[in-house]
């Protein structure tokens, strides 16, 4: 019997799946008890030992020549389009959508991609986009199908030695998440490249050895032209920042009492319908101090998964010393977006889980979901106009009810409702402050900024914050208050995938140390493709082990949840050894689990695993003679 035939899912295993499903294999955690949610959690400082994830910023090897790109020049943005923009106290518009006729369709984009052999043995091509006067460009990449092992790079020609690199599967995964959220619009089908702070940006695409370039299905029908300078400024630029906030704003670095809370606040940059905006958000702790990067902002900033997918965050974006008018050297950017967990207009709340780990030194803010007394002293920490972090001081004057009257306007009335009316005694808020948290006594989050009329000229005019306690009781407690019993699984972990160029196979691991070993010592052979799904690291109710096996002769791996297949391999193929349990998943659907599809590679006698509908479709449409789909291997999760 050929190894390929022997390693395939058996009828006995199919029967086992059915049996497990009949015995409660839906994944409902046994023993879970409904418990009263926690109503108050203190802040938590992330330890230095916490996993910081994998940086997408790479240094291009001196041996790897930059491909000569096709060049698309858009010209300057009409001044009238930005001059007419009104100053509104909401999410701040800093970039406008522009159509790109030369790459509107897949066919037009294919004409621009001039493929050349790459250093790794594959094919590489690039397109440069430029716009006179732009402070940045985000490319709206519509990716439909990409060969497994594809890598995308983003950089400016002026600084081509430093690139943002992401695997094609991660791009497809983010677009799929938008589709799963029900967004079938152009926004939902788009991956927005990070802003590199230049009037020119290059998109580079590299496909692996053996991949057909005519199967690359992507286009760039539009860009977001950023007309305000959002790049981390130089010292000279700080004295003339075009997005500088009003003179009565208070430098948050002057108030050491809130040194921890400052480290929880990030400046947000995101794109919606081609326009790019600035808001403020806050990292929140949960009742287990799990380190899960929950992030709170406003619904009027981000209310759709496609907007969350485009999110960039700037951390420690403040002065290092009180009123120094310089930028802290610890300022750190994260560009990989977020998953939208909850959004509601009733309290103007948006609750996200960041895809990136927060940088070292980040603080997970505490919160209070109890009823807040009127006249409570409060502090606001925010980025007005996208400026360095500012602080405002005041008190809660009353409750009130607010309702939108137009896209950027709202009215509030009465002395009861889902919002706090806040009056400032020092400082104020502006466009870009939206989504920032209100801290009771400067320590615990109790609200999220909706908007208001306060300004340096009208300091007594109130601002309005959505009540955290209402949003918490409506939904946020499902994430922030521990609902998992102590005896059950404690949390899912990412499973990382690498493309082995030498062996033309994929390698999977949930072990962070193993991930980092490949990244640091074997990067020339293994292309990192990011987390492809989530699973449990330990045994738990209704969970099933997924075994990892290695062929010591061919140095290739197999993953199976089938004990029959596991034992058959060990007993009949002397070179195959069991390495242990790779992770724990489910043998049947339920509990939000998604299927992992397994393909047998006839040429290399290896296996490929994916949860991605786009990857599955690509293999079946373009490589069915090489890859045989064998069905569902096991079930895992799309997120934590």
Note down, in words, how this protein is organized.
The chain has 640 residues and is an alpha+beta fold. The protein is 15% helix and 38% strand. The protein has twelve helices and 39 strands. Strands 5, 8, 11, 13, 15, 16, 17, 18, 19, 20 and 21 form an eleven-stranded antiparallel β-sheet that branches. Strands 3, 4, 6, 7, 9, 10 and 12 form a seven-stranded mixed β-sheet that branches. It has a six-stranded antiparallel barrel with strand order 24-25-27-30-29-28. The longest helix has 13 residues, at 168-180. It is globular, with a radius of gyration of 26 Å. The chain starts with a helix and ends with a strand. Mean pLDDT is 88; it is low at 1-33 and 484-488.
């Amino acid at each position: 019997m050929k190894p390929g035939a022997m390693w395939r899912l058996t009828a006995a295993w199919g029967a086992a799946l059915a049996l497990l499903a009949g015995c409660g294999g839906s994944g409902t955690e046994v023993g879970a008890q409904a418990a009263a949610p926690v109503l108050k959690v203190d802040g938590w400082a992330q330890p230095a030992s916490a996993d910081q994830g994998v940086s997408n910023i790479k240094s291009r090897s001196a041996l790897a020549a930059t491909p000569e790109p096709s060049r698309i020049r858009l010209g300057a943005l009409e001044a009238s389009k930005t001059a007419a923009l009104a100053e509104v106290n909401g999410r701040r518009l800093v970039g406008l959508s522009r159509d790109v006729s030369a790459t509107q369709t897949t066919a037009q984009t294919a004409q621009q991609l001039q493929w050349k052999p790459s250093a790794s043995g594959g094919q590489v091509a690039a397109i440069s986009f430029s716009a006179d006067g732009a402070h940045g460009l985000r490319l709206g990449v519509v990716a439909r199908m990409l060969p497994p092992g594809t890598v995308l790079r983003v950089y400016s020609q002026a600084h081509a030695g430093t690139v943002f690199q992401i695997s094609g599967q991660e791009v497809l995964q983010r677009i799929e998440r938008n589709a799963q959220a029900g967004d079938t619009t152009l926004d939902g089908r788009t991956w927005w490249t990070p802003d590199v702070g230049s009037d020119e940006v290059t998109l580079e695409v590299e496909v692996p050895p053996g991949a057909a370039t005519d199967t690359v299905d992507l286009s760039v029908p539009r860009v977001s032209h950023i007309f305000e300078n959002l790049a981390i400024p130089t010292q000279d630029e700080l004295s003339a920042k075009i997005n500088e906030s009003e003179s009565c704003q208070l430098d948050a670095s002057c108030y050491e009492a809130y040194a921890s809370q400052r480290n929880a606040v990030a400046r947000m940059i995101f794109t919606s319908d081609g326009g790019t905006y600035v808001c403020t958000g806050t990292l929140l702790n949960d009742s287990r101090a799990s380190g899960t990067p929950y992030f709170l902002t406003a619904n009027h900033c981000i209310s759709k998964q496609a907007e969350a997918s485009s999110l960039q965050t700037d951390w420690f974006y403040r002065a290092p010393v009180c009123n120094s008018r310089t930028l802290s050297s610890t300022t750190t950017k994260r560009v990989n977006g977020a998953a939208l967990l909850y959004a509601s207009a009733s309290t103007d709340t948006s609750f996200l889980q960041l895809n990136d780990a927060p940088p070292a030194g980040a603080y997970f803010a505490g919160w209070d979901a109890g009823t807040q007394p009127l006249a409570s002293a409060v502090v606001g920490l925010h980025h007005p106009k996208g400026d360095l972090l500012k602080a405002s001081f005041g008190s809660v004057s009353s409750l009130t009810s607010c309702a939108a009257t137009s896209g950027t306007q709202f009215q509030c009335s009465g002395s009861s409702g889902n919002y706090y009316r806040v009056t400032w005694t020092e400082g104020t808020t502006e466009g870009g402050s939206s989504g920032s948290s209100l801290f009771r006594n400067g320590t615990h989050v109790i609200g999220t900024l909706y908007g208001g009329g306060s300004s340096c000229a009208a300091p007594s005019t109130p601002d309005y914050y959505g009540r955290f306690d209402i949003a918490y009781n409506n939904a946020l407690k499902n994430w922030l208050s521990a609902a998992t019993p102590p005896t059950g699984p404690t949390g899912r972990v990412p499973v990382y995938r690498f493309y082995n160029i030498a062996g033309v196979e994929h390698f999977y691991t949930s072990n962070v140390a193993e991930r980092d070993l490949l990244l640091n010592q074997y990067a020339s052979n293994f292309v990192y493709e990011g987390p492809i799904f989530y699973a449990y690291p330990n045994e738990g109710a209704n969970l099933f082990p997924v075994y990892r096996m290695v062929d010591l002769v061919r140095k290739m791996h197999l993953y199976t949840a089938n004990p029959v297949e596991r034992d058959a391999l060990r007993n009949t193929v002397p070179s195959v050894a069991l390495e242990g349990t790779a992770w724990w998943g489910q043998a049947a659907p339920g509990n939000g689990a998604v299927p992992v599809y397994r393909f047998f590679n006839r040429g290399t006698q290896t296996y490929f695993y994916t949860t991605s509908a786009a990857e599955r479709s690509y293999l079946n449409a373009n490589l069915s003679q090489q890859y045989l789909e064998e069905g569902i291997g096991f079930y895992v999760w799309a997120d934590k």
